[in-house]
Amino acid sequence: MECRAFPARLGTREPFRELIAGVEAALDLRAHRAGTLSRHAAYLHQRTAGIGSQTQLIRQAAITAILDGTERITKASLDQVRLGHLAETHYHTTRSREPNPR
Fold first, then answer.
1. Which residues of 29-67 are buried (b: 16+ CB within 10 A; e: fewer)?
2. Could you tell me the residue ranges of all domains in the chain?
3. Tell me, what's the pLDDT at 102?
4. C-alpha span between 53 and 48 (Å, rounded)
């Protein structure tokens, strides 16, 4: 079975952002601000190559937030999670093509 990346945009819709918003709505973290993950949808799509790793990434960040007592997910906490080879390779390849901020 061939699985394609979940599209970031599809016409005027943003299906990936909608997916992330749904996952975020199911989080039960006391200090998490609603909309945080949706604001980082472009980063999450790039980080996970638009494939199934997004739930793994969010789940691991949520577990870490519970264990360390912060009870929230931030971009910094997402950066600390390591994913599978395909997603990590994609992320590091696309990041290296970005212009350096000055």
1. beebeeebbbebbeebbbbbbbbebbebbbebbbeebee
2. 15-94
3. 45
4. 5
